[in-house]
C-alpha cells in the first residue's frame, strides 16, 4: 500500500495541498479580493453561514459531477477527498494565520496578496504532479485546456471568468485582487509546473530502479 501511494505521488499531493491552502488563506486575509473560486466560497459563507472550508467541500463535490459530464466519464469520486483535505486546510490556515499576519496598511495587504499568488501557483504545480485526483477546479482547467487546445494560462482565465460571475451573485470576496489573481494565477502555475514535472519524472525513474535492483 505504501509503495502504491509513493508511485501515485502522495508526497507531491499532500505537500502541494498544504502550500496551496496556506496561499488561499492569505488571499482571504488580504481582503483585496480572492481568486474567483475562493470568492464564491467566501460569498456562500457570508450568505448562508458555515465555514469557508465547508463550502469548499460542498462546491467541490458539485464540480466533480460537472467535470464528469464535460468529459463524459464517471465522476472522480476520489476528487472529493481532495476537496475535503483542501477545505480542512483552508479553515486550519485561516485560524492560524489570523493570529500571525494582521496587515494594517495597503502595502501589507498587497504583500499578502502577492505571497498568496506565489504559494497558490507553487502548491498547484506541485500537487498536479501526483496521479491522485486534482482539485475539481484544477481538473476543470485541465479539461478546458484539453477540449479547446488553450494553454494552462488561458484555460485558467476562462474558468475564472465563469466563477467570478457566479461569485458576484453571492456577494463574494471580489475586488482588485480577484482581477490580479485571475490574470496571473495561470502564469505562476505555468512557471512552476515544468520544474516539478521534471522532478516527478526523476523521482519515478529512481523508484523503478529500486524495484529492479
The sequence of SSEs as H and E is HHHHHHHHH
Task: Kindly report the average pLDDT value.
Answer: 83
Q: Which structural category fits the helices and strands?
A: mainly alpha
What is the general shape? Answer: globular
Task: Give an account of the 3D structure.
By secondary structure, this protein is mainly alpha-helical. Helix 3 runs parallel beside helix 8. The longest helix has 37 residues. It is globular and about 50 Å long. The chain starts with a helix and ends with a helix. The relative contact order is 0.19. The model has no long low-confidence stretch (mean pLDDT 83).
Write a short abstract of this structure.
By secondary structure, the chain is an all-alpha fold.
List the helices and strands and how they pair.
Layout: H1 2-8, H2 10-30, H3 36-48, H4 52-71, H5 79-97, H6 106-127, H7 136-148, H8 152-169, H9 176-212
Comma- or semicolon-separated keywords:
mainly alpha, 9 helices, 213 residues
Amino acid at each position: 500500500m505504501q509503495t502504491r501511494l509513493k508511485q501515485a505521488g502522495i508526497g507531491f499531493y499532500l505537500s502541494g495541498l498544504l502550500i496551496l491552502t496556506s496561499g488561499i488563506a492569505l488571499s482571504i486575509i488580504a481582503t483585496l479580493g480572492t481568486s474567483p473560486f475562493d470568492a464564491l466560497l467566501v460569498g456562500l459563507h457570508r450568505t448562508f453561514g458555515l465555514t469557508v472550508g465547508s463550502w469548499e467541500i460542498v462546491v467541490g463535490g458539485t464540480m466533480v459531477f460537472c467535470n464528469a459530464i464535460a468529459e463524459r466519464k464517471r465522476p472522480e469520486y476520489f476528487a472529493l477527498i481532495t476537496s475535503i483535505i483542501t477545505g480542512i486546510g483552508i479553515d486550519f490556515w485561516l485560524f492560524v494565520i489570523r493570529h500571525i499576519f494582521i496587515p494594517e496598511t495597503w502595502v501589507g495587504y498587497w504583500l499578502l496578496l502577492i505571497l498568496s499568488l506565489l504559494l497558490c501557483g507553487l502548491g498547484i504545480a506541485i500537487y498536479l504532479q501526483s496521479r491522485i485526483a486534482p482539485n475539481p477546479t484544477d481538473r476543470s482547467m485541465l479539461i478546458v485546456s484539453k477540449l479547446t487546445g488553450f494553454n494552462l494560462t488561458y484555460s485558467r482565465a476562462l474558468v475564472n471568468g465563469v466563477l467570478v460571475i457566479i461569485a458576484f451573485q453571492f456577494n463574494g470576496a471580489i475586488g482588485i485582487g480577484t482581477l490580479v489573481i485571475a490574470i496571473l494565477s495561470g502564469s505562476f502555475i505555468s512557471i512552476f509546473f515544468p520544474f516539478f514535472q521534471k522532478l516527478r519524472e526523476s523521482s519515478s525513474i529512481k523508484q523503478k530502479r529500486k524495484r529492479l535492483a
